[in-house]
Amino acid sequence: MSVSEGSVRGMLAVNLRQARLERGLSISELSRRSKIGKATLSQLESGAGNPTIETVFSLSRVLEVPISDLLDARPAGELTVVRAAETEALSGEGVDLRPLQRIESGEAVIEVFDQRVRAGRRQDSLGHVGTEHTIVQAGRLGVRVEGREVELGPGDYVRFDAARPHSYTALDGDVRSVLLLQYRSDQRLHLPHPAPGPRSAP
């Protein structure tokens, strides 16, 4: 089955290889640093793998690049509409993330995600580049950052250094939230973008 460059797998395949080469890393060395098997990395670079949140965040941490340098979020336009049914989710142990938009303004880069934490599940992260902002829309969310825990309800907001180990837990049913990842523009590799693949018009 062919993989379009517009899919999460297709974009990750192109961008992962470019980021790895930019850092001067072999697949073996990237495997050692990220604790991801060489066969898995080879599959991801060929577009045949099945990336998870854990994998992408681990690669972001090791390569020291924003998530969008790996997933190639949509460029901004005068009017951008992202339909829920047309956006591929990146899933992990407890979370489904849908990349919506990357916003660049001056020295700031902000990635916007629709985030769902599944009922009774927890999503752990060892940390990654950037500052994390979460706004809860529905449900009750437990957030743990280096041993400190807070509970958030609808309308509540939390901000923390994403480089620190952290986790999200759905405390009462599914949790819907908006996740913003903020970076400095100098933290990006400024990778050349691949030719756009087939994509629905806004």
From TrEMBL:
InterPro entries: Cro/C1-type_HTH, Cupin_2, Lambda_DNA-bd_dom_sf, RmlC-like_jellyroll, RmlC_Cupin_sf, TransReg_Diox_bact_type. CDD domains: cupin_XRE_C, HTH_XRE. One of its GO terms (cellular component) is cytosol. GO terms for molecular function: DNA binding; DNA-binding transcription factor activity. It comes from the Bacteria. SUPFAM superfamilies: lambda repressor-like DNA-binding domains, RmlC-like cupins. This is Uncharacterized protein. It comes from Streptomyces malaysiensis.
